[in-house]
Protein 1
Amino acid sequence: MTSVSLSLIIPAYNEERRLPATLAEVTRYLGERGQPYEILVVVNGSTDRTAEVAKAAAERDPNLRLILTPLRGKGRAIKIGVGESRGERVLFCDADLSTPIHEAVALADQVDQRHPIVIASREGSGSRRLGEPYTRHLMGRGFNALVRLLAVPGIQDTQCGFKAFSRDCALDLFGHQTIPGFGFDVELLYIARKRGYPIRELPVTWVYRASSRVDPVRDTVRMFGDLLRVRLNDWRGHYE
């Protein structure tokens, strides 16, 4: 039986500027909750001082661990973090905290036997998207429509970077995950559907960060390729 209630995984690629404030906010909030937790910062192939920043934070907080990998890819980083985690519930979040930490942790609070997967949604009643350029939003909605058609019908937002799982569910899903990049979200939810896990969406507040590395055109093309890869993997029996 694990003594850790929550494992928070933060993938970090070249985040030396944003990471200090993020870790300060996250450790403050989780510490005030009074429940056993761990923070796993997975630094994947960074070329700046992200690793040094995370290491300094880990030296100050025994609940924080630094995991280093030379391999890039958000999906790969989170998979490594899940494999190293010890919590009863597993939550991953973006390093820019585009959704407030209290709303992100609220996802994990809703995880139970009936709801082993709870994901953030920027669409639908109760959600708020702040500061996002209209063209970016429009392209995102187009991609989501394609995802609903080809992979996970009924899910309004597959790409928000805040998702929570029960421990057993996380280990099962990430054990079958193959896509290393941004398309891993779709693959993860596709595997969940394939393996019979219910998925619950909760509305969140999401703030657009102008320094985001997401390129709507380039990444949409890449994720379309990942969609095709997911269907091919399924046809080959990889998700059985």
Protein 2
Amino acid sequence: MANQTFSTPAPVADILTETDAGYSLTVWNDDINTFDWVIETLVEVCAHSPEQAEQCSLLIHYKGKCIVKKGELHVVQPMCEAILDRHINATIDALV
């Protein structure tokens, strides 16, 4: 049998520290906005691909909400305001 050597991986805690904090941008379902309008909004405001926006719109419709973006407040706040300006319900929550 050949000799095998294993190296110890780098500590994961240092890598995850930066992504643990931040905010989530949630879009909520309503009976007013169409799938196309929500998809167009997510593509234009959140820089989603059309496929990603469609998946999020389906989650919004069937689950009642979907976290569409995570990041620092200065990133998600303008996105939330732009979504609200399009009369789509959205909120920002701190990640714990």
Protein 3
Amino acid sequence: MSQQILLVDDEEGIRKVLDISLTDSGYQVLIAKNSEEALRIFKENRPPLVLTDIKMPGMDGIELLKKIKEESPDTEVIMITGHGDMETAIESLKFDATDFITKPIHDEALEIALKRAKEKISLKNQLKEYTENLELLVEKKTKKLVEAERLTAIGQTVAGLAHAIKNITGGLTGGEFVLEQGIELNNQKYMHQGWNMIKGNVNKLKNMALDLLNYTKEREPDYQLCDPNRPVQEVFELMLPYARKYGVTLEMDLDKHLSDAWFDPEGIHRSLLNLVTNAIDACTDINSNHGSDKVILQSRKTKGWAVEYQVEDNGCGMDEKIKGKVFQSFFSTKGTRGTGLGLMITKKIIDEHDGYIKLESEVGKGTKLIIRLPKKDQSLRSK
């Protein structure tokens, strides 16, 4: 298909000569006798090439060039000028004219100017095609990277889950063996020990399943207007027997001046339960050198926040490397006793509350975890 070119000149003789020359060169020629007519034809046809005189009545060629470039920056415009008007022709190059030729117009000069213009059009098309292909390639590569990251995350999750389940099944197998020995020997002590091992590991499995459901499920907190001290009291009463069992002193320190606040009581209960369980376990760690193991669970009034919770222990503590990993899925410092989900779930719950969680720890001195919940209003009731 022949390429369109818009020819603009107020002199009829020049229009006819150039029309013949351009048609013979294989162009489909659109003709205008002034700039106003040229703009109308250009908007209707959008030719890639324009050949225009500079000196014309009314709107001159420079103004026409500017308007065409505003409409279509990629259109190539060649200017025609007389010998005495070289400064104007050079000025046109500042406004992104492709080239200029002088009157009288020689076929060779016109051919060279048109060749340059066509080369520029070809280069722009190649660049556009390359850019589009590059964008498509980037999009495909990005999708592959996202998919690879997704598969890696799934692989890590499955590996961590398999390890956690392996630990639990090991505990179940051990409990089964002790229970069988107790039955075989008619030893009540062995029976109780074996059965307690089985129950403990079944509870671990149940809690791990609940943690996984909580982690994978996108949910809005079930906001209720609550006493901020209530989850502290509930967790304290629930964990007190567990702490005594391992010789850990569990203390509670409540701020009686706290006002009722909007939060999800079940989620905050779960979070504090995870933190207190970890704190007690840290005190019973073999690397803990304290003679008197202690965990303090407290609520505090903090400026700018609805409530601050702190869980502090004087257990084994953590180094910087471990501190950087504690909120990662399936990372546990407890060996076979942990699943590596507790702190991850806690952080997710606090994030869902738009809250704040901070870990402070030092090896051999203990760990403190701080949770802050923002002030919310009654509009959350409908969520």
Protein 4
Amino acid sequence: MLTINAELRKETGKSFSRKLRIHNKFPGILYGVGNSNILLTLDHNSIFNLQKQISFYQECLFLVIKDEKYKVKVQAIQRHSFKLKLLHIDFLHA
């Protein structure tokens, strides 16, 4: 099973997302029924390389946030229209 490392974030909005992308990171969210939403910051290169594998979309993944492991599935990914960049990712509690 694939493992993804993520960091918590508090800031939201377009300007903060742009600042993240300048530093080769991008925003994401973890949500699910009965759980509160968790705002995430993810490393672009590691996720970009993982998302090339079919198992990234079909299987459950482990998301590690501050030494806590969550079993998740990829719900949605937003990509830039012509650059090879990921803009946002949604994870769903599995």
